[in-house]
Structures are given as structure tokens and as C-alpha cells.
TrEMBL record:
The keyword Cell membrane does not apply. This is AB hydrolase-1 domain-containing protein. Its main location: endoplasmic reticulum. GO terms for molecular function: monoacylglycerol lipase activity. It comes from Medioppia subpectinata.
Length: 335
């Protein structure tokens, strides 16, 4: 009996040590690429929180400003593969990390809201004097773009005007959105808190990999960089709070779907069809609901992150659409 008790005690102590080390394991260092990304950015104060953003003025061929808005659970770094061609074609590129993401502050016990994220974008664009922007938004930020469109349509946009909007795979229609298993778990009141605390690189990689196409998975370096940006400032601890956007989309469906149905702002969609979050019925529904729908569908096998899975095709389609809208006069690609 004593042997069993001693063995059990040793096991419990060992388990406690392993758990303590596991949950307090230090975040990975910045890679050279991430270090360069961070060093070339700036921070804005928003109600006491620091919001990271990149604001690049380039020698682009066309005098327009593109605002890049990222998805969940990643950051503005998602755009790094399309930036070279984008810089050649536009004069200014702005890429913020929304509150709770990337290199921005990630307050715990905070009520994250699409309205607040939209307020942050308005404040940023006023601060840096960017009165007219062309929005390219993905996933989570598709809803931020919809809210900004609703504000412009209602005459309540404060920074100037949205010239065009292009959306990449995102939950435009709440009824078609399919949250992944990990997202549903993280949303649970108690279990979600425990799971977020236990999340590590391997759990993150497993959960994110399922939304990419089988043959267009991120590289090992990309996974590490994405995890580093989530791990920064203990961001993995707030992922459940950030997922409040799923319920928020349903509550505000009339406002946000209405914004894209008005046909008041030039709108385009670039869609990866192998997306389990917004599965193929999405494209059909989009064409049915959006008047004179403008949509480019990527090759089979491209999933939820088109800008990372097929960056050359995404930037080609985006720039050619801007040219058709007469927003730009020429398209320049790296040869």
C-alpha cells in the first residue's frame, strides 16, 4: 500500500512539474523576418492600448492607398507574400494589427467587438492622414470592412471615404459560416479558458492546418512566425474572447449583410473554394444575394487563406480588378 501511495505521489508531483513548465514555457524569439516586420512598423495609442501598424509609402505606379485588414487568429503578417507586388502598383500600403492580435496589445477580460475594431481603424486613418482607402480584407476583418461600409453608407464614416472593397474568404453570411472545432471549444465559458491556457505550437498548427488546402500548407517557418505573433503578449489567452465576433455577426446580420447588398461601394470577392470555414455553397449564395456580384474563384485546393496559399494569383486578380474599376491605370508585376 505504501509503495502505491508513494508512486502515486511521485506521479502527481511529476505531473504538476510538467504542467507548470508547459504553461509557463517562454514564447519563441522573433525570426529575422518578423524582426524586420516589427522594426518597420509603428504604434498608435487607442484608449490606453498600443496598436501596431505598418504604413509604407512606396514608388508604386498608381497614386492610391490600400488598407490591408487581417483575419483570426493571425495578424497583418499574413500579407507579407503579396506586399512586393502591391508596393509596385500602389503608392501607399497600411496594415494594422487589430486589438488582440499580432504586435498590438492583447488585454485580458476585455470585451472585444467589431464596433471597437472599426473605431480603431477610423482613428488610425485619421491619425496618419489617409482620407481615401481601398480595403482588402480577410476572414475576421471582412466584418470590420462591412461595418466600415455601413458607416459610410449611413454618412457616419469619420476619416474620408472607402473607394473600393475586396474581400477574401470570410463570414459575409453568418448562416454559411462554419466555425472549426477548436473555435467552438474556445468559446465555451470554462472549458475554453482551460484549453486556451494549454494551447501550444502543436495544438495551434493542428487546428490551423485544417483550413488550408492539402497542397498549400504554410511552411514550417510560416507556422512558427504565426504562432510567435499569437504567443506575443500571451495572445493565446484571449482567443476565446476574440471569438465573440461569431455571435456578433448573427446579431448584426441585417446591418452588415445589408452593407454589401447596397451596391453603393465597388465590391469584389476572391474566394478559395476548398475552405471548410466558408464551404462551396458560399460562392453560389454570394452571387444570388449580391447585386451584379463580382467574384473570382481560385483553383480547387486553395482554402481559407488565399493570400498565403496562392499569393501571386490573388494579387494578380486584385490588381486587375482595380484596373477594371479604373482605380489604377497600369499593373506592374515582378519579372
Amino acid at each position: 500500500m505504501g509503495f502505491l501511495v508513494n508512486t502515486l505521489s511521485i506521479f502527481v508531483v511529476a505531473l504538476a512539474i510538467v504542467f507548470t513548465v508547459y504553461v509557463n514555457y517562454p514564447e519563441p524569439p522573433l525570426s529575422p523576418l518578423l524582426y524586420q516586420w516589427q522594426s518597420s512598423g509603428q504604434h498608435m495609442d487607442f484608449k490606453g492600448y498600443r496598436v501596431f501598424y505598418k504604413d509604407e509609402v512606396t514608388a508604386g505606379a498608381n497614386d492610391i492607398t490600400v488598407l490591408l485588414l487581417h483575419g483570426f487568429p493571425t495578424s497583418s503578417f499574413d500579407w507579407y507574400k503579396i506586399l512586393p507586388d502591391l508596393r509596385r502598383n500602389v503608392r501607399r500600403v497600411i496594415a494594422p494589427d487589430l486589438l488582440g492580435f499580432g504586435l498590438s496589445d492583447k488585454p485580458r477580460f476585455h470585451t472585444y467587438s467589431m464596433y471597437e475594431q472599426s473605431d480603431i481603424i477610423e482613428a488610425l486613418l485619421k491619425k496618419i492622414n489617409a482620407p481615401k482607402v481601398h480595403i482588402l480584407a480577410h476572414d475576421y476583418s471582412v466584418t470590420v470592412a462591412q461595418e466600415l461600409m455601413a458607416r459610410q453608407i449611413g454618412g457616419k464614416l469619420s476619416f474620408g471615404s472607402i473607394e473600393t472593397v475586396c474581400l477574401l474568404n470570410g463570414g459575409v453570411f453568418p448562416s454559411l459560416h462554419r466555425p472549426r472545432l477548436m473555435q467552438n471549444v474556445l468559446r465555451m465559458p470554462i472549458l475554453g479558458t482551460v484549453v486556451s491556457k494549454l494551447t501550444n505550437y502543436y495544438v495551434f498548427k493542428w487546428s490551423l492546418s485544417e483550413v488550408f488546402g492539402a497542397n498549400s500548407q504554410p511552411s514550417r517557418d510560416d507556422y512558427h512566425d504565426m504562432w510567435k505573433l499569437i504567443r506575443q503578449k500571451d495572445g493565446y489567452r484571449v482567443m476565446g474572447d476574440l471569438l465573440a465576433y461569431i455571435d456578433e455577426r448573427h446579431k448584426n446580420e441585417d446591418r452588415w449583410v445589408g452593407a454589401v447588398r447596397t451596391n453603393r461601394i465597388p465590391l469584389h470577392m476572391i474566394y478559395g473554394p476548398s475552405d471548410p470555414v466558408n464551404p462551396p455553397p458560399f460562392a453560389t449564395t454570394y452571387r444570388q444575394i449580391i447585386p451584379d456580384a463580382s467574384l473570382d474563384e481560385l483553383a480547387q485546393g486553395i482554402g481559407h487563406y488565399p493570400q498565403l496559399e496562392d499569393p501571386k494569383r490573388v494579387i494578380e486578380l486584385y490588381l486587375n480588378w482595380l484596373k477594371r474599376r479604373q482605380a489604377i491605370t497600369q499593373v506592374v508585376f515582378n519579372t
